Amino acid sequence: MRTSIATVSLSGSLTEKLTAAARAGFDGVEIFENDLLACPLTPEEIRARCADLGLTVDLYQPLRDVEAVPADVFARNLRRARHKFELMRRLGADTVLVCSSVDPCAVDDDALAAEQLADLADLARDSGVRVAYEALAWGRHVSTYDHAWRIVEAAGHPALGTCLDSFHILSRGSDPKGIEDIPGEKIFFLQLADAPLLAMDVLQWSRHHRCFPGQGGFDVAGLVRHVLRTGYDGPLSLEVFNDVLRQAEAGPTAVDARRSLLVLQEAVGAAEPPPAVVPTGFAFAELVTPDAAPLAGLLDALGFARTARHRGKPVDLWQQGEARILVNTAAAARRDGTRLAAVGLESPDPAGAARRAEAMLAPVLPRRRAPGDAPLDAVAAPDGTELFFCSTRPGGWRSDFEDVPHAPAAPSVRRVDHVALTQPWHHFDEAVLFHRGVLGLRAEDSVDLADPYGLLRSRAVSNADGGVRIALTVGAAPTDDTAHAQHVALATDDVVAAARRFRDAGGRLLPIPANYYDDLAARYEFADGELETYRELGILYDRDAHGVLRHCYTRTVGRVFFELLQRDGGHRGYGARNAPVRLAAQHAAGTP
Fold first, then answer.
1. 430 assigned binding-site residue
2. Which residue among 185, 405, 538, 581 has the highest number of C-beta atoms inside a 10 angstrom radius?
């Protein structure tokens, strides 16, 4: 299906928005009137610019407060419309969006609304324009799509149809099944937006919190299925009002928007991209650092052994059980200090995963390979983390490393349980959709975490069996971009033994305030000495409906720290209840 995007969904000037939409692969645009008014180009020049970019102008919007008004007001409205229709002719747009009136002088009279909309459609037809009538969720008298359709049907004019907007329909809790009663040829346009499920005034909700399909809590795919059953053959168009997107760079936002429609089309059966290849586990986590010594000491205390060295690069492999950490000291990779730079994802079909990623507009990263290096495809996540699709089977990425002598050790860590990635403040929703659409992971519920200096949002994505878990976290303001460290959580069967081993080897555990353990004693009953052990080692404790979580943290090196984590009984969480205590302790230690 053709895809379109409203210019209000992107930041910047109109020409910047058009360029971003075209580069992202959209077929057309809705031109928002404010963008046109602020543009120094003439309508003819904008039309030519769109044509040069391969874009059609699918909609001009909005024409407000037209119908069900006194005769003198309606006469002025027709005069206004006549000017807009001439403008549309110059612009090359043939459909105008008319929103249901919020004018205080509008009356609750469907017959009058139908009559005046028919008159408007007469004028539009003479100018080669169609009128798409939309019910605003906060319309004065018309606020539901079925009400708007009844008025359009009563008017009976060939140049008058309806516009369906997923936000206006789903925010009011309307049943979208009734859309199937509308003839497809009378649905002149379809606008799509998602939104988080919030309890607030619908106008404020709409103006500030819309997001792209798949990033919120609405069943946008279900609504689109109903629309397609009518025979609708127009574009899928995005109209998103969002404070964050208004401040984000237009290019990446447009790509995110286009990806959301690719995922949506796949969900409704309107497109068949390469299927998602869901990763089964973590092959490795790669840390880059200007100084390997602190990391080496930390990994050694955790029970890792340096087992191999890359044949042609300054990269060491540290391993314990199935947990593998790469330490990269290459000059080009360590400009920003110690950080988590890449994640290797164990894939049953690395080549298929790469095809899927490219089809979903993930930026494919160029990789310099020496002769004999294993082929490894990588893409960049929204936060810049490199994601490698790889296999640890013979002949895979492990063959690039030569074993080095090392002392055998009894591992206390089994594997990587999850990684936590801090997102740029304006890429949080994009990151969730990216990991869903590109990797086929499922998104868990979003949670708010109380940091001593602000509120953080966190949302995890995972595969079905929990073999891959990625926690995505973002601060509440742009200044939070680099304030919080990333971490690698290591699964162990005995966190007490693992923590003691780490401490006895010279490792420094994050100290937790005594007040936390006093509260634990009030909330739970423990065996004799159990709580004292947790207090001694800084072990945090949580329960959910499935089991128990015990976990503790190392001090931070650069922007990276490790978590030792024991899940019992199938505990599914990440310790969100304990996050405020952990964050405060890290601030106190000087390592947020």
1. no
2. 538
